[in-house]
Amino acid sequence: MSLKVLILGVNGFIGNSLTEYILRHKNWEVYGMDMASDKLEKCLGHSRFKFVEGDITINREWIEYHIKKCDVVLPLVAIATPVLYVQQPLRVFELDFEANLEIIRKCVLYKKRVIFPSTSEVYGMSEDEKFNEETTNLVLGPIHKQRWIYSCCKQLIDRILYAYGVEQGFSYTLFRPFNWIGPKLDRIDEEKEGSSRAVTLFISNILHHGEIQLVNGGQQRRSFTYIDDGIEALVKIIENKDDVAYQRIFNIGNPKNDLSIRELADMIVELVKEYPHVRHLAEKVKIINVDGEKHYGKHYQDTGFRVPSIENAQKFLGWEPKTDVRSALKKTLDYHLATPTRATEEIAL
């Protein structure tokens, strides 16, 4: 099966990893747009990869042309950094909802299948032991807790896609990543606080700041998923053998990798000590507790835990996550810190 796949946000964490996997293991063509290409160094120049530098809010004609041209569309562009949900909620709304809704409407118009990245955050503060795609209530905080604007934007697009499915038989799949981690998640050379998500933020803190700040003591629990495991599930969704992913929602996470943010920080510090050239930084780093409201502002609110049910992915995709969290962190650190041994080979043309 040869597919033409359009990936918007192709230079992002999921986009670049998915593109590299496709070019290595499939005969599909990939058309990608993003505002940069620094994470695509192994893909640029490949005969089955066509990249254009652009902005989804500006380059609308290019996007419409390629929606018509391609079989599957993955609109992966979004602001997904919690500090920005609080500080720039309107920017989050304009990009994550408005810009993506315009793309989805074009896909509906041309009857092109959409694979949309929902989020584990749509479950919000649900108290279910495991979050189930079909039965778990989506519980968000009050309006003045602006942290929830990201979750709300994603949830509304989920509901719109579902409605198009019911009313028009539209072909879509929603996937909900649960804290995917790995190489190229964010940059670790960013010295500005809040520019990254937890794993890369903690690595950057060790290298640049000498301290890791844990919001509310880091008691919040998350289920961390290695990027390669997530990409394997995503490829199965794109393949859609026997229409197994048609109008379905999939949690893509690893319930066995459930640990607190404090445990995550401690594990990263210990692992960084295994790299001789930065061991001294990890040995001196301080872990301090900070109040969430003081750290992020009065509009912040958090969830206590986030564990996925992955029965849908197991049953319909035949997918199981394989990578434990320590191995996932070690592979991430190898990429960022073991620079002299990092493979830089290009994908064969």
Structural class call reads alpha/beta
Which spans have pLDDT < 50 for at least 5 consecutive residues? 191-195, 340-345
Reading side by side through the largest sheet, how are the strands ordered?
Answer: 3-2-1-4-5-6-11
Average predicted confidence as pLDDT: 93
Q: What's the N-to-C terminus distance?
A: 20 Å
Query: What is the strand tally?
Result: 13
The SSE string, one letter per element, is EHEEHEHHEHEEHEEEHEEHHEHHH
What does the main sheet amount to? Answer: 7 strands, parallel
Question: What's the architecture in CATH terms?
Answer: 3-Layer(aba) Sandwich
- What number of structural domains do the residues give? 1
Can you identify the CATH superfamily?
NAD(P)-binding Rossmann-like Domain
Measured on Cα atoms, how large is the radius of gyration?
20 Å
Oligomer: single chain
Helix content: 25-40%
Spatial shape: globular
Helix run count: 12
Beta-strand residue fraction? 15-25%
Sequence-ordered SSE layout with sheet pairings:
Blueprint: E1 4-8, H1 13-25, E2 29-34, E3 49-53, H2 60-69, E4 72-75, H3 82-87, H4 89-109, E5 113-117, H5 149-168, E6 172-177, E7 180-181, H6 198-208, E8 211-215, E9 221-223, E10 225-226, H7 227-239, E11 248-252, E12 258-260, H8 261-272, H9 279-284, E13 286-290, H10 292-296, H11 311-317, H12 325-337
Parallel strand pairs: 1-2, 1-4, 2-3, 4-5, 5-6, 6-11, 7-10, 8-13
Antiparallel strand pairs: 9-12
Helix pairs in contact: 1-7, 4-5, 6-8, 8-12
Protein name: Bifunctional polymyxin resistance protein ArnA
Domain NAD-dependent epimerase/dehydratase: 5-253
InterPro entries: Epimerase_deHydtase (IPR001509), Lipid_A_modif_metabolic_enz (IPR050177), NAD(P)-bd_dom_sf (IPR036291)
